[in-house]
Amino acid sequence: QILINSKMCAMGHRPLCQDTGSVNIFIKVGLNAKLELSKELEEVLNEGVAKGYTDPDNTLRYSVVSDPAGERKNTRNNTPAVIHYSVDNSDKIEITVAAKGGGSENKSKFTVLNPSDSIYDWVMENVKHMGAGWCPPGILGIGIGGNPEKAMLLAKESLMDHVNIHELKSRGPKNAVEELRLRLYEDINKLGLGAQGLGGVTTVVDVKILDYPCHAASKPVAMIPNCAATRHIEFELDGNGPAKFEKPDLDIWPDLEIPMDSVKRVKIEDLTKEKLQEFKSGDTLLLSGKILTARDAAHKKIVEYKEAGKPLPNGVDLKDRFIYYVGPVDPVRDEKVGPAGPTTSTRMDKFTKDMMEIGIMGMIGKAERKQPTIDLIKEYKSMYLIATGGAAYLISQSIKDAKVLAFEEMGMEAIYEFEVKDMPVTVAVDTEGTSIHTTGPAKW
Question: Considering only CA atoms, which of 411, 266, 264 is closest in space to residue 328?
Fold first, then answer.
């Protein structure tokens, strides 16, 4: 599904994943470059970001909120970007831009090890507990040394490098960092986490490491993953006009189809709590019918209404409904909705008991659920389904109609009603509490 989605996006010129991220910019400015600016460089860069994200022919999702510890109000154009500046003696400007999704950013880790501690052991232990919310398979970036902020910056910057682990495997490592890269790459893939955490031999497609001298008493180490929908590009400006980009050749994608031999078609209107018990963890379903959407902010609002004893706006009724954890991209042209892939479900775990008490039928998201949530699913004979993280454009093709029902002021965090036809999902936790995120990797 990830590869099919990727090819569809190249053809349709739409985002791979609905989470078009926060924008990370690495800019190296030559001291001899003649910049003809009438405003600050940072303002110019942010104007570029705003222009890109609000392009009416290909709108991207606005995910950035201001006042992060308070109101958390959406900035409505995905600015400001996170900008890292450096200089050299050239007469050029080099820019790398990454649209980094929140699912992978949220799995970032940092520590200061003792000088005698093992970096390998720390990374392996953390990868085991990272779950699937970062949407593997992806790239693992590691920064070593400097100080806390330098290590984190190195880890992020390492993710911008090209995938070349196959070249390292072929020629063999030449230093300690390359030895660590290769060892981690091979041993992480032996953990059996696999794509989407469902089990398999490919969890990372590369491990990147950048290091920097540090204090003799410390060993700062940072780790940041990139998701399957890795999106970054680099270009150079030398005064001879704008940068130009070549579209990828569609022949580089394999011809794939979703196997349909074991797929079960399900009409949501026919489902009951008794009927749910027929489906088992690992089953692939094609859902048709009407579902509701809700993410973090909507869940918080729903619980507030519940505690106040008030009905939801516009008569929205959650009883016996499936709730899809998604914040879609706005539609363009003849789309009913833009790319609409799942967000990480564990963030909604804190609200699950309230939602079960309200009477929802089940949930759709991505990645694993925590054990207390799995226990609730079993207790209420509910079900948790997963859609493929990152395959947002593919999923959006199954959404035949979309309308906002409540909290329209929250933008992509509003409650929508989607009418879907043959939406591809997998049973992740069945009514007996069996989780594929436990059984799948265990098989490998």
Answer: 411
Question: What is the residue extent of each domain of the chain?
Answer: 1-101+232-257, 264-443
SS3 149: helix
Q: Rounded to whole angstroms, what are the CA distances from 219 to 21, 108, 112, 223? A: 30, 17, 5, 13
Indicate the class that CATH gives domain 264-443: alpha beta
Q: Which of 318, 303, 422, 317 has its CA nearest to residue 363?
A: 318
Residues forming beta bridges with residue 88, ordered by sequence position: 30
- According to DSSP, the residues that pair with 222 across neighbouring strands are 110, 143
Q: Over the chain, what is the mean pLDDT?
A: 96
DSSP 399: E
Backbone φ and ψ of 399, nearest 5° = -95, 110
User: Distance (Å, rounded) from C-alpha 160 to C-alpha 366?
Assistant: 25
Structural contact between residues 441 and 196, judged by C-beta atoms closer than 8 angstroms: no
CA dist., res. 243 & res. 221, Å (int): 35
With bands split at pLDDT 50, 70 and 90, how would you rate the model's confidence at 56?
very high
Indicate the range of 250-254, 351-355, 421-425 predicted with least confidence.
Answer: 250-254
Chain centroid to CA 29: how far?
30
DSSP string, 190-225: TT---GGGSS-S-SEEEEEEEEE---TT-EEEEEEE
pLDDT digits 0-9 by tens, 367-406: 999 999 999 999 999 999 999 999 999 999 999 999 999 9
> How far is 321 from 323, CA to CA, in rounded Å?
6
Q: Are 374 and 435 in contact (CB under 8 A)?
A: yes
CA distances from 178 to 124, 174, 260, 261 (A): 16, 6, 42, 43
Residue of 402, 427, 264, 254 whose CA lies nearest to 338: 402
Q: Which residues make Cβ contacts (< 8 Å) with residue 420, sequence separation at least 6?
A: 287, 288, 289, 290, 291, 398, 399, 400
Give helix then strand counts, H and E, for the chain.
13, 17
Cα 14 to Cα 3: distance, rounded to the nearest angstrom: 14
The single-letter DSSP state of residue 435 is B
pLDDT digits (tens, 9 = 90+) for 281-293: 999 999 999 999 9
